[in-house]
Write a structure and sequence with these properties.
single chain; SBP_3_CS; 12 helices; Glutamate ABC transporter substrate-binding protein; D-Maltodextrin-Binding Protein, domain 2; 35% helix; 2 domains; transport; alpha/beta; globular; Bact_solute-bind_prot3; six-stranded mixed beta sheet; Solute-binding_3/MltF_N
């Protein structure tokens, strides 16, 4: 690859992944800024699991639009405050051409705000802030590729699963063509962020893989584009965003996930009425096809066909 091409591709990646802070209304954006979180180049290590996540932990509260204190408060304020990502391309990222944060998660947040009859106000947050900001009441919900698990249920509440993600592998186009699974990663240089479980999962699946670390997935992408690694591992949603930046060389082939990562909309633990409302909106998005339209627009070109996961209730 020529130096000019590498430079151009890195510039595009930097522009697309640059964090931005915007406010989004149900019909568009206004110019009111919200506090910007301090950036961190190092990923936050996952907290030790205090329990074992089972299928029962995917159960949420039955859908309902009856409302309650939380829903009434949001409607009275006229705004739904949502914590989002601004650097997860295709899920929640700033479009440098329009200055709008957009993606699959943003589509869902927009629909929830619309059904509540309020404006949508997005606050860019990092993964470590999600639970803290919910518990403090600084935001109403989190729509930021957040995995449902038993430990988090001890702190907050979740909607039913709205997307079934999983740890997968992005590969160089020539390696992806015949990829069958982890057995094909022997002696392949695979990158994952430092301090995450992704690199450990690769080592377990294929001990002969050459594990390489970087500060974050953006760092892995730079190594990939410079030819220092042949593959990157992480949630398939993250990998889809990386593949979108390098459509010439990067591929996420069809494959079984190393780990399940069921995504849910997070809310403050006591705001059960809001969770029920969100679940009803998600049910409607499944029925009317808008979930499928959003998935096909953002993720299908890079991850292939998918349908909405079946919701589980009974909490």
């Amino acid at each position: 690859m020529s130096r000019d091409l590498r430079s151009a591709r890195r510039s595009v990646a930097t522009a697309v992944l640059a964090a931005a802070l915007l406010v989004l209304s149900a019909c568009g954006y206004d110019a009111t800024p919200l506090p910007e979180p301090e950036a961190s180049s190092e990923p936050s290590p996952a907290a030790p699991a205090s329990c074992t996540t089972t299928a029962a932990d995917l159960r949420s509260y039955a859908p309902s639009r009856e409302g309650g204190d939380a829903v009434d408060r949001i409607r009275k304020a006229g705004v739904l405050r949502v914590g989002v990502s601004a650097d997860t391309l295709l899920m929640g990222a700033r479009n440098p051409e329009t200055n709008r944060i957009e993606g699959f998660d943003i589509d869902i947040a927009q629909r929830i705000a619309k059904e509540l009859g309020v404006s949508l106000q997005v606050r860019v947050i990092n993964a470590a802030e999600r639970i803290e900001l919910l518990e403090s009441g600084a935001i109403d919900i989190v729509a930021r590729n957040m995995t449902i698990n038993c430990a988090r249920w001890e702190q907050i509440a979740f909607s039913a699963e709205y997307y079934h993600a999983g740890q997968k592998v992005l590969l160089r186009k020539d390696l992806a063509k015949g990829y069958r699974g982890p057995q094909d990663l022997a002696e392949v240089k695979v990158c994952a962020p430092t301090g995450t479980t992704s690199i450990d999962n690769i080592r377990k699946a294929q001990p002969a893989a050459v594990a390489v670390t970087a500060a974050n997935h953006t760092g892995c992408m730079v190594k990939f584009q410079q030819g220092e690694v042949d593959a990157i591992t992480g949630d398939d949603t993250v990998l889809a965003g990386l593949a979108a930046q390098d459509e010439l060389y990067a591929r996420v082939p069809q494959q079984e996930a190393f780990t399940p990562e069921p995504y849910g909309i997070g809310a403050k633990a006591e705001n059960v009425d809001l969770v029920r409302f969100v679940n009803d909106v998600l049910e409607e998005m499944r029925r009317d096809g808008s979930w499928q339209v959003s998935y096909d627009k953002w993720l299908r070109p890079y991850l292939g066909a998918a349908t909405p996961p079946a919701p589980a209730y009974g909490r």
